[in-house]
Amino acid sequence: MFMVRGFNDVAVGHSFSHSVTVTETHLVLAAGLFGDFHPLHTNEEYARQSRFGHRITHGPLNVGIMASVLGNYFAGAAGPYLEQTVRFKSPVAPGDTVTTTWTILEKMPKPKLDGGIIRMSVEMRNQRGELVLEGEGKIVLYNDARPR
After folding, report:
1. Cα dihedral 113→114→119→122 (10° resolution)
2. CA torsion, points 50, 55, 58, 59, in degrees to nearest 10?
3. Which CATH architecture has domain 10-142?
4. Could you identify which of 4, 25, 127, 135 might form a hypothetical disulfide with 85, taking C-beta atoms 3.0 to 4.6 angstroms apart as the criterion?
5. What is the pairing mode between strands 131-142 and 78-88?
6. Are 135 and 83 in contact, with CB atoms under 8 Å apart?
7. Phi first, then psi: what are they for 52, rounded to 5°?
8. How far is CA 53 from the centre of its chain?
9. Crossing angle of the two packed helices 59-74 and 24-34, in degrees rounded to 10
């Protein structure tokens, strides 16, 4: 069961992380969902000849994994995802275990929302500690999990 963490439960500097191993299934489902069957994602022989030397996952898949941490961590108190910037730094391969870490940079109370907006930085690193993406995001965070 998820613990509800609302706007009043977090502070500037608060960090939280989650790790996931990216599987072949993630990559295949992403190709179908996005309609992106580029051979860097779907053809091992082609990808071996590329500068990466192996297949890589879709950028939007990595962003989805990154963003899923917010919904899981804040459970029902998370409101609309307002803004996201991402810089892709290194590729992710099927079989990599990536860890996403979010850190709260700013809290902007919004009494009309019964909560506020939080601005956060994000980093995703692979199992070797290499930075694979970084960015910032803003999300509405309510004080509790009531439907709105």
Report:
1. -110
2. -60
3. Roll (3.10)
4. 135
5. antiparallel
6. no
7. -85, -30
8. 25
9. 110
Identify the residue whose tokens are 């970084």.
134
**Which two tokens mark 94?**
């099927």
What type of residue is 122? V
Reading the block at residue 19, the tokens are 């790790």
Catalogue the E-assigned strands of 22-144.
78-88, 97-110, 115-125, 131-142
Residue (of 49, 127, 123) closest to 87 by Cα position? 123
Per-residue pLDDT 10s for the chain (148 aa) are 567 789 999 999 999 999 999 999 999 999 999 999 999 999 999 999 999 999 999 999 999 999 999 989 998 899 999 999 999 999 999 999 999 999 999 999 999 999 999 999 999 999 999 999 999 999 999 998 887 7
What is d(CA 129, CA 143) in angstroms, rounded to the nearest whole number? 34
Q: Which amino acid is at 41?
A: H
131-142 sheet: strands from edge to edge? 15-21, 97-110, 115-125, 131-142, 78-88
